[in-house]
Design the sequence.
């Protein structure tokens, strides 16, 4: 029994944006986002020839709370 490949793909619920737009949103370089995709911290989605990322997932991966001194 053959399965439909489209059903197997997990589509993110957030907003998919290009690497350049994501980099501008978080004030980082696109290379930083590419590194996160390469090490598995963030999932990259190829749409046509363009790689896109989920902004919500990227926000969770990049934003780290810093403990206060008090």
Sequence:
């Amino acid at each position: 029994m053959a399965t439909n490949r489209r059903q197997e793909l997990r589509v993110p619920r957030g907003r998919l944006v290009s690497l350049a737009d994501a980099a501008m949103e978080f004030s980082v370089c696109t290379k930083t986002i590419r590194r996160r995709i390469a090490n598995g911290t963030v999932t990259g989605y190829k749409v046509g020839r363009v790689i896109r990322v989920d902004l919500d997932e990227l926000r969770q991966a990049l934003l780290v709370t810093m403990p206060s001194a008090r």
Q: What stands out?
A: DSSP finds four helices and three strands in the chain.
